[in-house]
Amino acid sequence: MMRLLAGLGLLVLVTCCTAQHQPAPKVATSDQYKGAELEEYFSDSLHIGRKGHNKIEMSLLRTKDRSFVIINFFTRQNGCWVSANHYELDKDDVLGMDPELSDFNNDGLNDMTYVSAVAARGANEVRRLFIYNKSNDRLMMIENSDDYPNLRYNKRLNCLDAFLVYGGCSTVFLRIEGDSLKEFACVELANGLSVTTYDRHGKEKIIYTDTTNKAEYVRYINFQPLEVNDEEDSY
To answer: 207-227: per-residue pLDDT in tens?
Structure first.
């Protein structure tokens, strides 16, 4: 029962670790989410944040009007799971959550993403990113992460990069600043190739152009010098 309440985002502040967890039902039974169908459920307490100290529970629910994700993040205190974060976020109704736990800020602790939307006929996978903050033991949502599709950690530059597909394509290099992502460089392939950098105020500077470049849909791992991504650099 405790797993059900946490998974459906009810106002439960403490879930004792000794409680017997039962499988989540197909339909939410609380007044808050009455009639919502539970499409997907995910729980982890071994890999998120500080392993064994934190737990995440996620539910994808659907009503006739909307699909939405409920995220509950817990910290262990005195042998019990205590609520630290709660999010309720709209989601498209095309794909499942496909949650992934990985380190996106190179602090040795796993963060979380899930699929929030798809675009460009499936070429752009949009994910919401949540970073674990050890200083306050909470999960922080990166507010503009779904502006950058195909987001991943870039080991070569110790940053994040995104790959945007449209009539051309762009590899965008990003840093985490507070609860947002900030661009510091971009390689664009559209009517040739251009490399642009951005200072801390967002002022852009084109540092390289090649109007003869005809390559299409190439993702880069570095912008100075230009290096094409390969599987070895994927996380």
So the answer is: 999 999 888 889 999 999 999
Enter the pTM of the model: 0.83
pLDDT tens for residues 174-208? 999 999 999 999 999 998 999 999 999 999 999 99
Looking up tokens 């109704």 gives 93
